[in-house]
Amino acid sequence: MKTAAKLFTNLTNKYLPDPLVIAIGLTAFTMLLAMVIRGNSFLEVTTQWGDGFWDLLAFSMQMTVILVAGYILAKTPMVDRGLTAIAHRVTSPRAAIIVATLVGGVGSWLNWGFGLVLGGLMAQKLALNVKGLHYPLAIAAGYSGFALYGVGLSGSVPLLIATPGHFLEDQIGLIDLGRTIFDPVILGMVVVLLIGLPLFNAALHPKDPADVKEIDPTTVAPAPEKLQADKSGLSVGERLNASPVFSIGIGALALIYLVQHFARGGGLDLNTVNFALLFLGILFLTRPMYFLDTLNDGIRLAAGIVVQYPFYAGIMGILMGSGLVVTFAAWIGDISSAETLPFLSFLSGGLINLLAPSGGGQWAVQGPVMIEAANQLDADYAKTALGVQIGDQWTNMVQPFWILPVLAISKLKLGEVMGYLVLILVFIGVVFGAAVLLWGFLG
């Protein structure tokens, strides 16, 4: 297994370009598929690409905010002290890989934006404290926990189909979370992955010290500057920036709003999650000056994804406008039965995610087709829908779209971690595929 990891790492280091180049290459590939499979002309797919390029602008902003807000919360003294305390208790490289995987996995199950950043920060702290830890594997391990986000408390598809007024309510009604993320089979799958994945990742750690790349401490972002003990030299504006009154006051106001929101029956969506993460960060950092310092670091972290989100929106525009996504899903439906449709939904969700990595956006395109297939086959709607979601989170392991923030934290290149993520993809695929296939045959 270590030989395979080394082989894939060497290959990806040598041949894998930066994520932006991959996004451009996927654009060209999707255009070619639309012309060959659907018979669209070059001008037609060019129009579809351009028309769709800004379709995910609001979603892109939501994703950017959740990543920055998650980073800010993860860098608050309370969370930072917790991560530091954990890191100081770990002494061996393999134990560090296990811890990074678990922190990323549990964090992503609770909230994907928070967990995505938390796994990378945990890996970084462990790399600073554990001698001989292979940093690229630690970062890959911290990111691998992100594979649990879609079957967690912030999974986009299960939350959407449980929300009144969702766009498929007339076809499938409301599907409560007890039939999706809290189903015993899915909970069992989560437990198996939380036990098996850390051990699998730990087994990938190089034995030869010559193969180990340790962290460069100079690449780690410094903590926000602490408030000066002597405030006599501060101007009025600087005193206001350093006052806890503003942060605590607006943080308390936000908490009051959230309590009212849920008391009125409000649901948990991306905007609510962003609101909570942002103001918890303000509250826990206690002073506006600390928040702004951390915000600046977080914005730099998200810089790489700002332009790339529209490229994937353009790919989605081609998939939708050309009918490619309908073709892909129809092929799956033609070879399915009621029992196997969830499994084939999983495979198709994983395939389409490689071209259009957006759980909620992908479901908006693929959902109607898969639900129609489920209707014709009399298959379970909940299992079919969650199959797509699980496929999406599976191939996120090798889809550069989501790992960009983690690379920004680590200052590593994509090729340095991708070799490990390919092997992680295979392991997770076996666990996910077996669970979804079993689930489809259960009553």
TrEMBL record:
Q: Which residues cross the membrane?
A: 20-37, 57-74, 95-123, 135-161, 181-200, 240-259, 271-291, 311-332, 420-442
Key words of the record: Membrane, Transmembrane, Transmembrane helix
Q: Please provide one cellular component term from the Gene Ontology annotations of this protein.
A: plasma membrane
InterPro entries hit by this protein: SCFA_transpt_AtoE
Keyword Translocase recorded: no
A Pfam family reported for this protein in Swiss-Prot or TrEMBL: SCFA_trans
Tell me if Membrane is a UniProt keyword of this record: yes
Q: Which PANTHER family match?
A: SHORT-CHAIN FATTY ACID TRANSPORTER-RELATED
Protein name in the entry: Short-chain fatty acid transporter
| Species this chain originates from | Kocuria rosea subsp. polaris
Upper classification of the source organism reads:
Bacteria, Bacillati, Actinomycetota, Actinomycetes, Micrococcales
